[in-house]
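We emphasize that the prediction below concerns an isolated chain of 485 residues; any contacts that depend on oligomerization or on bound cofactors are therefore not represented. The input was used exactly as deposited, without trimming of termini.
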Amino acid sequence: MKDLKRISWLAILLLVVLRISIGWQFLYEGMWKYDQMDTPKPWSAEGYLKNAQGPFRDHFREMTGDPDDLNWLDYGKMSSKWYAWRDRFATHYKLNPEQEALFNLMLDGSADEDTAPAELPTNPTFSRKLDALPKGVNLKRYANTIVFDAKGKVLKVMEPVLPSEEAAIKKMVDVVPTGDKKIPYRKKALVDKKPVPADDVEAKFYAAFDALVNYSRKPIEKAISDISAQSKKKDSEINRENFLYGVTRMSTTVKRALPYRHRLAASLHGDPDRVGVYGELNERGSFDIEMGTVTRQEESAEKHSINFGKIKEYRELLEEYETALTQAKIEYQYDHATKLALKAALMRADLVGPVRALEAELQDNALKLLNTEQISRGAMPAEDTPLHKSDMMAMWGLLILGSLLILGFFTRFAAILGAAMVLSFYLVIPPWPGVPPAPGPEHSLYINKNMIEVIALLAIAAMPTGSWFGIDAFFARLFFKSKED
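Result of the prediction step, given as a token string:
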């Protein structure tokens, strides 16, 4: 009661309203995050933590596990991640043997055993005799999938050809198949509304390439055919209905597209723009062309870079940014570091974006394997990573502390914990001199919205606001009443 004599009723009212307002802001933010967890793109503090600055930058960034998204550009790590996701997917949805076989075909091109995560899945090489390439055909971009051996006069396909690659290469020649045995191929354009036979070189290339595309996809089709034949046997353990259902759902992806790990390898090992190309002197005095990047320090008369890969360029840009950020002392140096960070972010989006899209496509197609009963099991639980733990701590901290502040229950305890939580948000990008500012319109020095909220919560903790209005008041009355008695 002494407190009521020292503080006006208006001040009491405003402090209680302040406590409830902060509690409501906590609670609503926590509820929004909770609702987002069941969406295709659940909430995560990953982006906020990756942009951390200041003296605690490394600590907060490491909480994400991969602050610069370099794991997305590592074939072995991505393969391991996809295998682990497949195993968790199969366990959660209780896939039957037929579904598992089809998933393996989709992922690895094999229905049986996995290849080591860092190794490329094996595929037979198919070839056709071809005297020469047409003038408009340039296969350099697809060197990891299809090559022309000019000396041996052979066209070779090492990996199943993606539909997009097939369409792009066929556009290079002025040829259209007719289905007519007399004139099997003609020019794309008609002359006087009549077909014109295609050039012999272009026609032969088109025919050879078309055959190789079909051959390259045969292993997957054969694997499906073998499982189908096995399911017809009386003593087969394969449930034919399950198998046919899965094939129907997955026919486009499994039969017509390259398995996902092959596509990943083509992107991270076989794309000359991403990986780079260099020449290495051989015993014959000529240069062997290899995939990879040779830096300036590594270049010599025996080895030189032909095309500097974007992945290597991105890694070097990250190193340059870290050095610039560490050495920055004055404003223009921080501006330079900020520009490097923006350049790195754009390059990261360009490099990582296609791999993320590939993973999303894999997971989306995996869901198509499921039947109605399996879908009713709900979404897979999130993987238990340091980032997931920090996300859960933030979400449940907001939900629990917000509820306690609104109800006025353990008010001082909740306010102190809330202040500590918001202080951790403040320290991710503190508005201190020498620290790059947070993105957005806000301009602060030492004090920003987070710090104001910390101070307000500490003020609430210093006052018995729960005893003025809240569940704490009920216990306080019981306590004081028993004391008076």
